[in-house]
Structure formats: structure tokens, C-alpha cells
Amino acid sequence: MDATRTIVETVGRLRQRRTAPLVLELDLTEGLSEGPPADPVSALLSMRKTRLAEVLSGLRRARKDPRVTALIVRIGGNPLGLGTVQELRTAVVKLRAAGKRTVAFAETFGEFGAGTVPYYLASAFERVYLQPSGDVGLTGVALEQRFLRDALAKAGVRYQVGQRHEYKTAANTFTQNHMTDAHRESAGRIAESVTEQIVAGVAEGRGLDPKRVRELIDQGPFIGSEAVEAGLVDELKYRDEVYAETVEDGAHLLYVSRYAKSALSGRLPHPGAATVALVHGSGMIRLGRSGRSPLGGGGAMGSDTICAALRSARRDEKVKAIVFRVDSPGGSYVASDAIWREVVLARRAGKPVIVSMGDVAASGGYFVSMAADVIVAQPGTLTGSIGVFGGKPVVGELLGKLGVVTESVAEGANAGMFSPSTAFSDDQWERVNAWLDRIYDDFVGKVAQGRDLTKERAHELARGRVWTGADARAAGLADELGGLEDALSLARRRAGLPDDTPVRTYPRMHPLERLRPPESSEDKSAALARVRLEAWGPLARMAGQLGLPAYGPLVLPGHWTIR
């Protein structure tokens, strides 16, 4: 009897939970992650991070779910990129419009530090709460760069770098001791554009006049009581007080990611059903497989992995459209060109390709995007940087100071051309410049082709300049402003698919796939790009629920950070 009673009570609790009001919860203190893990290290490091796509999917579903009454988001900890913040703000605004309560809570928006971007996110919520000891570091946007040329010269190191053209400033930290005019102009416009977006968002979210928001930015940072008085924060409360006020009696508290996964549980696409492929490309672009970046800070976008994913999606008859999510500051020209080719082939196969840009899709990140049918960017996405630079550090003097003697034996006039021990000769420098000219000409030509521009106009927009997504759209380098959900909706419409058409994520591979030896290079490529859903079933679903590579702050070419 006791066992029967326990079963009945358990079933009763489960039924009550299914009908109880839901309060969704999102903890951003660990940050968010973008695409699927590219290697075991990435998977391990991202286990505690929530997937951005899951959050967006969950909030989209919650808008129409009568059980969902509220959303609580804890902001703080790891910084989020501006593009990611704008994705979240849009989702929150739509949730508010659907009649759901939205609550933001933070211990502090910058503890004796800048907190402009975190507060910008919070301003989209109906209610903003701050711990009584917290601050609001609404101080504006500053782009700071350090120049190492003179310090390196004292150590006996100098850089030989060529660039195309004056706005391609990524190497300036090593070759200059100040901002060039072009560098300052580009950085100034980025700061201005980002500030315009933040001011407009805070003004709309908090019901303030934009001029007043500008004044408040100049007056910040604020201690808690000042923030309340200025209308930036609603009340000073501790976490327990916020949750007690928001979570009604009988309501069930549930993480957004768990809510999103519960909707998809057991609902893998039917083997014959039409799908939209979502291909994730994150990190520095390199030849070979995706994985950890050798420079640290996250994953790397490998051309083998991404090309295989695009190729697999192109050849799959069930895939009717492709969304290519790009979050990359660039990298290898050859690897970028290989990925560009697969985008072109997918379009030729009659499958719409929609690019969704994340925090940054610049240089090589723009190269892999520019052939798409439609480019969707956030207003704060950093994109463009259509140009190239290349060269090497020359450390011979430094080695001499350290007592290191370098000798070499070579056959061929240019056999030691890329050695850092000696500078380029005049003839070798000519070869470097010819290489730079060829790459730049190819890049600009493909921009003109993909974006339906004259080559002269493409060059005007190129020259290595970085644009915000808002400015890129105005210039014709992007088509629409929006996020991943907008890109998926657009892909479905382009392919004539229903709004609820499922999405299949690429690249992902269950570890057991690695145990089966490939039969050919084509077979190997396919294994890189897909999961055998029919064969692995629940295991594949588990693999698809792994976390994603770490997502850091918004890093601009030239090592700028907006916080």
C-alpha cells in the first residue's frame, strides 16, 4: 500500500507541475555559448554554459505558452558581446509584448568598473533590481588600444607588415606608436554608432528621453540609491526578495534551457521531414578541423569541418535551406576561400543560404559570409574589415642581445624568407606585396560579386575598415538587422516552409562516429558534419545537448573591448 500511495502521489505531483504556472529563469553569470563544441576540451569547458540558441528558442516558445507567467534573468559575471546582448534584448522585448513579466536582477553592473553593456541588456526588462550594495557602471563606450612598437624596439624586435589598406589596423599595435588618422576615424565611428544604439535602447526601455540618457552616461557611474533616483533601476533588493516577489505561490521555477529542451524531447525531425540546417562557424578561421584556437580564448573555425557541414547540408534532400551562423574576427585567407566556395555551391544547388552574424564577422568572417543570399546582422555586430595584412616579426637583434647565434644553410634565394631571424630583402618584400595585392583584389572582387556592387564601390567600403552592423546595412554590406531567430524565420520563408519546420544543427558528431573508419575522403567529410540520427537515436540527442565554446567580451580587431 505504501508503494502504491507513493506512486500515486508522484504522478499527482507530476500532473500538478505540468499545469502549474511557470517562471523561467536564466543565469548569465557563466556567460553564453554559440555553436556546438568542436573538441573534447571545448565540450568540457562549456558544460556550465547555456546555449544561446536554446535560450532564444525557449523564449520564443514561452511567448505563446499560457503557463509561463514571468522570466527572471540574473546578469553579471562573464561579459557578453554586444551582438549577443542585442539578440537577448529583442527576445525579452517580444516576451514583454506577449504579456509576460520580465525581471532583471544583478548584484552589480560593474563593481568599481564599467557596466554599460550589462546595464544595456537589463534596460530591456520591465523591472530592474539591484542588490543594495551594487553599482550601475553606466559610463559610455571607450575603445582603448596599446601600441608596442617602441617597447619592442627597445628589446630588439621590429615588425615588417604590409596591409591593404589604411583602415586595416589590426597590426598597428606592433607597427605604430599612435593611432593613425584612419585608425582614429574608424574607431571614433564605431564608438559613436555603438553609443547611439545603447542610448536608444536604454531610453526606450526605461521610458527616458535620449538626451537625458546622454546626460546620465556623462554623470555615471552611480551608486545604487543614485541609480534608483535617476530611474535606471526600479528598486534595491537582494536575490531572495526578488524571487519571493516574482515567483508566485504554486509556480514552478525552470531554467529556460531546460524548458526549451523539454519542448524538443523525443521530437527529432522525422527521417523524411524537411529541415533547415543551422551551421555554426565560431572563432579564428584556420585550415583543418575546428577546435581550440592556438591563440586561446575560445574555439577555432576549421575549414574542413565547416566545408563538410555545408556540403552535407547541400547534399541532404531533406535540408531545404541553410542558416550559417558566423562569429569570427577572421583568419586564414585560403581557409576562408574554401568555406566561401561551399556557400556558393549551396546556392547553386537551389538552397537559400542565410548568414546570421554574431558579435563579430569581420575580415575572414565577412569573407565566408558575403556569398549568402541574405546577410542578417545585429546593429552592434562588427563586420567588414575587407582587407588583408601580412608580415613577420624580426627578432635577430633580440637574439643577439641574448647571446643566441643563428646560422643556416639554404638552397634557394628565398628559402629563408619567412625566418624571423632576418628582415625581408627588397625582392622578398616585393613578393609579399604581390601576395597582399592578389588577396585584396580577390576579396574586393568577390564582395562586388556577392553584394551586387561595382568593384569601385566595393573598394570604397573595403580598405580594411570595420563597420558596425547598423552602418554595414546602410552601406549595403548587410541586408537586414536582426538575430538568429530572424535568420531562421527568413530561411523558412525563402524555402516555402512552415514556421515550425525543425532545425538540425551542424557540425556535430557523436564520439562513436569516430570509431568507424571512413571509406573515402567524402565519407570522412560527411562524418565530420553529421550525426547518424537514425542509428544513434537517444545518444545523438544527448550529444546535441552538449555546451558550446566559451563566449568572451566583444573583441574588436586591434584588441578593443566594449563592456
From TrEMBL:
Keyword flag Protease: yes
Compositionally biased intervals (Basic and acidic residues): 510-524
Main subcellular location: membrane
InterPro entries with a match to the protein in the record: ClpP/crotonase-like_dom_sf, Pept_S49_pIV, Pept_S49_SppA, Peptidase_S49, S49_SppA_67K_type_N, S49_SppA_C
Coiled-coil residues: none
SUPFAM superfamilies, per database record: ClpP/crotonase
Localization per record: Membrane
Entry-linked CDD domains: S49_SppA_67K_type, S49_Sppa_N_C
Pfam family, one: Peptidase_S49
NCBIfam families cross-referenced by the UniProt entry: SppA_dom
Protein name, entry field: Signal peptide peptidase SppA
Native organism: Microbispora bryophytorum subsp. camponoti
